[in-house]
Amino acid sequence: APETEAPTEVPAATPEHTRTGMSKASLKQAYIDNLFYIQGRFREVATPHDLYMAAAFTVRDRMLDRWVKSAQVYKTSHARTVCYLSAEYLLGPHLANNLVNLGISEVARRAGEELDLDFEAILEEEEEPGLGNGGLGRLAACYMDSLATVQIPAIGYGIRYEFGIFDQDIQNGWQVERSDTWLRNGNPWEIPRPKISFPVRYGGHTEHSRDQAGRSRVRWVADMVVSGVAFDTPVLGYGVGNVNLLRLWKAEAPESFDFQVFNVGDYYGAVHAKIEAETISKVLYPNDEPEAGKELRLKQQYFFVSCSIQDMIRLHLNTVGPLETFHEKFVAQLNDTHPAIAVAELMRLLMDDHAMPWDAAWDITRNTFCYTNHTLLPEALETWSVALFERLLPRHLEIIYEINRRFLDTVRVRYLGDEARVARMSLIDETGGRRIRMAHLAVVGSRAVNGVAALHSELIKTTILKDFYEMSPERFHNVTNGVTPRRFIVVSNPRLAELITEFCGHDRWIRDLDCLRDLEEHAEDPALQARWREVKTAAKQDLALWLSQHGGVVLDPQTMMFDIQAKRMHEYKRQHLNVLHIIRVYQRLKQNPNLGMVPRAFIFGGKAAPGYYMAKLMIKLINSVAEVINNDPQVNGFIRVAFMADFNVKNGQRLYPAADLSEQISLAGKEASGTGNMKFSMNGALTVGTLDGANIEIRDEVGAENFFLFGMTAEEVRRKQAEGYRPWDYYHGDDELRSDIDLVTSGLFSHGDTNLFRPLADHLINQDPFMVLADYRAYLNCQDRISEVYDRPAEWDRMSILNVARMGKFSSDRSIRDYAERIWGIEPKPIGI
Ligand code: CBF
Question: Do residues 459 and 503 share a domain?
Answer without folding.
Answer: no
